[in-house]
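ok trying again, last paste got cut off:
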Amino acid sequence: MEYFIWDASPIAFSVGPFSIFWYGILFASSILLGLEFMKWAFKLEGKNEETIEPLFLYTVIGIVVGARLGHCLFYDPAFYLAHPLKILAVWEGGLASHGGGLGAIIALYFGAKKYKMDFLWLIDRLIVPTALFGFLVRMGNFMNSEIVGIKTDVSWAIIFSRVDIFPRHPAQLYEAFSYLAIFILLFGIYKFSKAAVKPGFMFGIFLTLVFSARFLIEFVKVRQADYDTSFLLMSTGQALSIPFFLVGLGSVFWSLRKS
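nice, full thing came through this time. structure:
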């Protein structure tokens, strides 16, 4: 069987000694799109637009710091605790979505408190572009030929030639298109039903669907933790997804009871 061979360069273009990577372009694009969405939502609902940029800055810092600490502490704690300065070396790669999600929630909580905004109102809106952020970041991982799936012989398998010669599940694409579908669903709910849903509902739907998808896709993904997780009977990514999934369910039920 012939499989699709993926050998794209992770570098979009170079200017002298500097290289611009696809991952960076997609990451930055997702941030800008998220900012534009929040500007539109604030204007649509008559909120103070002057608070958008500082609140968004809180969120971006929370994502980056949380994602980096999540990678270091969840996936390779022995190395980073032995070399703590390496935690700052973000340019070497290593961001964990679970840590990024937790960091964003914490940062947004403090930002909402400072600017006297309704935390649940804010987070219900912010999760819409966050789902798009997940899609674009996973496409960046695909361009980097990283976070690959396990070996397989399914007809849609891909050979990541920068990794090895074996056909593998395109786990990044599974996640990317799952998040894109979740974005379309959440955008539809916000656009057509925002007045009918109670605070916390969209946030709960986001957590429930995103981390259900993440849990299932982990079955076909190469394990990323640099330590033995057999005692968990699941991967680190699956174990970290369970609390987010439960919080999501709780948020959905709580909002439904309110309504």
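cool. The radius of gyration is 19 Å. The chain has eight helices and five strands.
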